[in-house]
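Q: Sequence in, structure out?
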Amino acid sequence: MTGLRFCMLTTFYPPFSFGGDAIGVQRLARALVRRGHHVTVVHDVDAFAALHRGPLPEAPDRDEDEGVRIVRLRSGAGSLSPLLVHQLGRPVLHARRLRHLLRPGQWDVVNFHNISLLGGPGLLRYPTDAVTLFMAHEHWLVCPTHVLWRHGRERCTGRQCLRCVVAHHRPPQLWRYSGALERGLRQVDAVIAMSEFSRQKHMEFGLEAEMEVLPYFLPDMVSDQPGARGPSPRERPYFFFAGRLERIKGLDDVIPVFGSLPEADLVIAGDGEHGARLRDLAADLPNVHFLGRLAPDALRAYYGHAIALLVPSVCFETFGIVLIEAFQQGTPVIARRLGPFPEIVGKSGAGELFWTPDELLSSLRRLCGDRAYRDALAASARVSAPYWGDQRVVPAYLDIVRRAASRRGLTAIAEILSNTEAA
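A: Exactly. Output:
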């Protein structure tokens, strides 16, 4: 046996996905395959279909993604399946299939990711003889809305969960008051946060399980070459934003600032339900431009030629993949002084932090007007990029698996990992 058998369980997986957490799962799965392991991803098409507007991507129920085996679950009952999981906190229509997939003897490692609509806490208690991990891509373990955005209007600083879910127009989850989540996590060998900030936030909201910290990563990071190649996609100098157009992403108080910065543009990539409001806000600003969603190659070009990436989220993010994507292209960031961003910017030395619109405007002017200073930050971005590369993060992930296997007395798994990583 040259590699371990991994099963990744998650609600969303590309192309049936929305945000960065699914991309993070995909990158991890592919990286493990490149290291000689065998990876199967199980995800739920019903959940994506219930939340997605427009036609679904065309893909078979059994598929392969760069060596990753994919199992797509479809119940035939539409949105009823994820609704039952959401309300009951356990697999229902997919229960028999999931029990069969997780039966003892099939896997060496079972990694739970975002399982909120795949199986909830009940899935964590399915019997398996594998090493089990849970990766907290969001704050679902301590928040029914996943994002600690209370009543749909403010950062959560204390539990008002029942009123909050009603404000979000969601039905309450009674299983959250039953201890089901705590019992499920007791069956998991290691729980992983995506940043030190997120680990602390989970503790603050009462999570009892100990958490490891493991950041997201990018594959094939290159630190000694600039990311921008070819001509700039814009004629004028610009700052760049990439992400979902939602209130929590913080563009509402960024767009008006560009009325005081006519010498540079704000270029916004992404879409979302808040897009119409943001376009209205920018209607009288000729230097604010909306691109919609961009393909990865186009995104890299926009990152690489930007003066800086803007990351103005007003909610408690668990990480910030866009920051390390910018670093990979040698681009500095200007991020809100909130959540994990001070942690990431401090580690890289490749950007500035702001809190007020005036602080943001000062940073914009500084990077726009001082090319030498901007280039120094860009150099720090390139130097720091390998810290979030697969050559560092994936071995750290496998070390978490190895230590968990040792605690469980699964010496064969621990020895395989010790030997492969040493090689």
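The first strand starts at residue 5 and ends at 9.
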